[in-house]
Amino acid sequence: MGLGATDAQFHVLAVDDSIIDRKLIERLLKTSSYQVTAVDSGSKALEFLGLNDEVEQSDIAEAPSVSPNNHHQEVDVKLIITDYCMPGMTGYDLLRKIKESKSLKDIPVVIMSSENEPSRINRCLEEGAEEFFLKPVKLSDVNKLRPHMMKGTSMEDEANISKRKAMGEIQAPERTRTTYNGFDVLS
């Protein structure tokens, strides 16, 4: 199963304190051709994303939590999928920190939980979560992720094009109207 050019750009940060659930979501994401970085806590997710102010440096040095060869400066995370119930920082707390961050607020966040509590689900969705999956996560759930990443990608692309136009890097070509077989054609 090869990675297409468009699939290779989708990097997912998976956050779960349970190694079994973390490995399951990592395998499902990789099966769907996503790049995956898996960490075991909200604070390690923030460290990976570059929001270190809440993370004590001693915690970072103690446990290598980020998959090898992946560092936040080099990776463009397109989606974060996190467990709701984790010790220390919950998935809800992580969601709020991401949505409060000027640089990360546009990254889609998906929450997972083994508990089907409507008030919890609604609170996460109201705070900005794109989806709420019940565990165990299935391949059909993972298939729902791509539109959220595409939405973020197209907004980023449009923003970059707008910036480049404003800086004069992109010039709109002059268009001329010609007639071809009775149809007006812009060229």
Describe this structure in words.
By secondary structure, this protein is α/β, with parallel strands linked by helices. It has helices at 19-31, 42-49, 57-62, 91-100, 118-127, 139-142, 146-166, and strands at 11-15, 35-39, 77-83, 109-113, 131-134, 177-180, 183-186. It has a 5-stranded parallel β-sheet with strand order 2-1-3-4-5, sandwiched between helices. It has a two-stranded antiparallel sheet with strand order 6-7.
In short:
The protein is α/β, with parallel strands linked by helices and 187 residues long.
Structural class: alpha/beta
Strand content: 15-25%
End-to-end distance, in Å?
Answer: 40 Å
Average pLDDT taken over every residue: 77
Oligomer category = single chain
Order of helices and strands: EHEHHEHEHEHHEE
Strand order of the largest sheet: 2-1-3-4-5
Largest sheet: 5 strands, parallel
The count of DSSP E runs of length 2 or more, i.e. the number of strands, is: 7
Spell out the blueprint of helices and strands.
Layout: E1 11-15, H1 19-31, E2 35-39, H2 42-49, H3 57-62, E3 77-83, H4 91-100, E4 109-113, H5 118-127, E5 131-134, H6 139-142, H7 146-166, E6 177-180, E7 183-186
Parallel strand pairs: 1-2, 1-3, 3-4, 4-5
Antiparallel strand pairs: 6-7
